[in-house]
Amino acid sequence: MAHSARRDSPELPDFSILKRLARDQLIYLLEQLPGKKDLFIEADLMSPLDRIANVSTLKQHEVDKLYKVEHKPVISTSDQLCFLIRPRIQTVKWICDVVNADKVPGKSRRYKIIFTPQKFYACEAVLEEQGIFGDVTIDEWPFYLLPLDDDIISLELPEFFQDNFLAGDQRWVRTAGSALHLLYSLYGPFSKVYGIGRCSKMAYESWREQVEEGEQKARQAEIGNVFLIDRDVDFVTPLCSQVVYEGLVDDIFRIKCGCVEFGPDVTSSDKSVKVMLNSQDKVFSEIRNEHFSNVFGFLSQKARNLQTAYDKRRGMDIKQMKAFVSEELKGLKQEHRLLSLHIGASESIMKKKTKQDFQELLKTEHLLLEGFEIRECISYIEEHINRQVSMVESLRLLCLLSITENGLLPKDYRSLKAQYLQSYGVDHLLTFSNLRQLGLLVEQQPGETLTVMESKVGKLVNDKTAGKLTDAFSSLAKKSNFRALSRKLNLVPKMDEEYDLRVPRDMAYIFSGAYIPLSCKLIEQVLERDGWMGLEEVTRLLNGHEFAVTGSSGVDSKGKNDTQRIILVMFLGGCTYSEISALRFLGREKGYKFIVVTTAITNSSRLLEALLGNHV
Amino acid sequence: MIKSKVDEEDYWHSSKFKAFTFDDEDDELSRLKESRQAVNNIRRLVEEDDDEDDVEKVSWSGEPVGSISWSVKETAASSQRADREPAFPKISTVTPSISRSQSGYSLSSLFKGKPKGGNFQTFSDALTDSSVRLYAPELRKPKSEYKDYVSDWSPEETVQRLQQGKAVSLEKFRTLQDKLLLLDLAIAAHDGNVIMAVLIYLKRTLCKEVLFRELESRQTALRHFIHYLSETQNQRLLLELHRALGRAEDAALLQYKEHLSITDENKRRDFLKNCLSLPFSAEDLAHVQDHYTLLERQIIIEVTDRQAERGGKVEIFQKFPRKALILNMPLITTLYYCCFYHYAEPEGTFSSPLNIRQTFKISEKQYFVTALAARAKLKAWLDVDALFASRNWLGFTRKKSPLSFQRVVDILQKNSAPTHVLQDYVALVDDGELRLTLAQKHKCHNIVINTYRDMKDRQLLLGYRGKVVRGSVEERKIDDLLSNPQIRWKN
């Protein structure tokens, strides 16, 4: 790749131990129920489980049949049932039904529920209410962290987002703290912890308490610093269309637990193929962080190289040929397979994106980010809604409009909402209520906004950078925090300059040079300043809750500089592949290595689908 | 991001026991801290035995050194319990105060960093190869084996034990004061699981009037409780709660939501009718009214059309059998449906597109887009044409559209309109460059050829000759132009 990388980036710690740990813990728990048993697995735990164990591991520990939890009566004949579930009330209720149904004919079985990553009292209360407390044994499988790649670790808890930010339910705070604690005890001690957001702060506190409660072992740190960030600090970034390869693949094909299923249109056969997307895939690892416009060129170059390698066969004698087949051919074939898959995927992406006028969509997004031609943007969105183009996409644009403009004018809000309900169904009243609650789609509050903003603008203008600001600034009065943040942090590069996407100059390349993701910019700034000093305005615009603390090992940090440059970033509420790409870029530029820990990988569709109110 | 700072602060301070928020200037917090410390110590003493029990009870078959149980012992042996100090400081910022926003918390001499000297340590450091790493999960007895024992834990200890997932009884908290203290401590601990545990206990032991009253001043707990009630589908209590707290609109929406679980369309319609008396905002009420009116109408249309379809007499239903019921579809889908199957009906019928437009106050543009798509789908090009003409009755020569012609072309093309239809509309695109691009994309040769002629660009025209079908009218036209001596080509 053409990036000017610093070559002294430190090595990442080995996270495969997390998988082994989780597997051993699970086996231990299964052994707690000796003898043959049937295992029921919560649907969304199947993929994570697949990453750490396989069926034969389970069979070895006397698991007879495997079922997916489907909330239907069970047909198992086994006299021992084991349920491996998330601590969800509905699932527990279903188990109660199963047990109670067995009680009617007087059938006696042993039941075990394994909650992961932890149990909740509310679930136990259900067992008690349903009269089966004591009939089942309960355990916890502390499977907090699943490494998806060398530098990505996921809690695989997508519901963290809506539970915490929409419902205001803090049930996962301790979970986040425990996950951090696990990393701390394996790869710590950390020197510094930075963070921003209410939940980050609470998670930090929870972790700190667990450090105090737990045992400490003096050991060599492998992770230097930690940055915690709440998803609601930056909603703009996950709502933008992704244009970096990995993000695009996620937007279009939905990567699930690090694995994607390419359909017949990609494989150009009648079969679908499941592919693991990670650094093991040599083709993928070279294009994952690239802007999509570079991917084709790269792939065709790669194809030519491959051809040359194959062509070497010609003119070989038997002995050379033998060596070629045994040494190189397998690798070439593998590369060939991957290459054709990614070319197929790229073509399919191109087709889909041309069909939906992607260019125009991106233009609208960029205008919203810049704050230009808002009227045109609104009518574009309106047309989108009128034509009943994707329900989620329309919602995404509405939210982007609202956040960047700090709310819609009441007139616009009403009209767009009415048209949305007409196009996609009145039951989306509930969706709008959710979005309002979360602050993603709101009406501008007349009057109040003006005065608050006036004072903010006043402060901004007094700042040293104010010299650069033009007169247009005075019309900012009604504008949003996003605009102010964007100016303050230079998130939107000037459009008149050419941006060479092949040689990115900053993190904006992940959005075609139009926008530097706020989340990653904050991380960059805080690391650079070693704290929040000088970012007072920014944190004020973000409603505060920032912190920066130092543990004692940070003091004598000399001599382990390498560790100091290994930074663990924990996103509470999910992060996107684009953000990960941006951080990887930042790491290469500054000689950091980032480890991204997230409650789940998210993107605009997942984020908004979690907020739809029109399902039972 | 959206919440104002004031709100946010209210939120943090909403607890009556301010001492347990992050704002820890009060000495009550330091007391809490002290007692936590004390508890920690007690716990450590109490549990030392337990831990050992755990290790002994692990009857692990097969795996020798490197197995979990082995490493648990290692962990226990090598952990240093003495001289412990807090490793990281507690954060005490609530307001985003500027002065504190730097990393000024550098507490010196906290936990041990890398040990200096000591060969053993270096040795084990060298062994960081993960296969021999001495780290292991904290194995404990499965929770199911804990005896539920009643004990004399203080409120602070109780909350802490709850946080650690340990058995504890709440029954001794009988006075309202005790209960609320417990709740506030749980809130201060920021552990939703613990907050819920306490709330479930309070729900069981307090009458709802008292519970609701106390929740009102505790927003965090209130939100947990609301979430719990909706997860357990305790609709009745949730509605009562909303009403008791004067959250009329929330209650209305919640009730409205119930319609989603009613599958019978007639019952659903009746339910929606009842919803009209709920205290929605004026704006939302209008939407719910529309929802009711729409479903009522869909039911009528569905009955009629199903008969027509079965009767086999109506041509359009034979030619284009319906793929789905129209029930519960959005308004625009219904309009599209009516434009498709009932286009020419007089305005008086329920299924007439014009009637629907009128009843639901559909905007001109929206109506236009939908009708255009529906008629194009049917390839009723005359209807399509008429849509534009009727805009400008007097002029008639000129087509007018509330939608940009580029969009119109797009819609027509997506409904596979033939070139001769497309080119009429491509020609109407204002922007010359865009027109040319569209013409090329949709193979509207005449437009391309005429444009090049007007540009007097011989080269482009020559190049385009290769793109038209050999021996076609277009090729002849190009040849005629190229050989026309009256044109002054610029190249």
TrEMBL record, chain A:
Locations listed in the record: Late endosome membrane; Lysosome membrane
Name of the protein described by the UniProt record: VPS33B late endosome and lysosome associated
Pfam families: Sec1
Any one Gene Ontology cellular component term annotated for this protein: late endosome membrane
Entry keywords, A to Z: Protein transport, Transport
The family this protein is said to belong to: Belongs to the STXBP/unc-18/SEC1 family.
BP-aspect Gene Ontology terms: protein transport; vesicle-mediated transport
Membrane topology (UniProt): Peripheral membrane protein
Superkingdom classification of source: Eukaryota
Keyword Transmembrane set for record: no
Automatic annotation (TrEMBL), chain B:
Highest classification ranks of the organism: Eukaryota, Metazoa, Chordata, Craniata, Vertebrata
Keyword terms: Cytoplasmic vesicle, Endosome
Compartments it resides in: Cytoplasmic vesicle; Early endosome; Late endosome
GO biological process: intracellular protein transport; vacuolar transport
InterPro entries in UniProt: Spe-39
PANTHER family (UniProt xref): DEFECTIVE SPERMATOGENESIS PROTEIN 39 (PTHR13364), SPERMATOGENESIS-DEFECTIVE PROTEIN 39 HOMOLOG (PTHR13364:SF6)
GO CC, alphabetical: early endosome; late endosome
Name of the protein in question: Spermatogenesis-defective protein 39 homolog
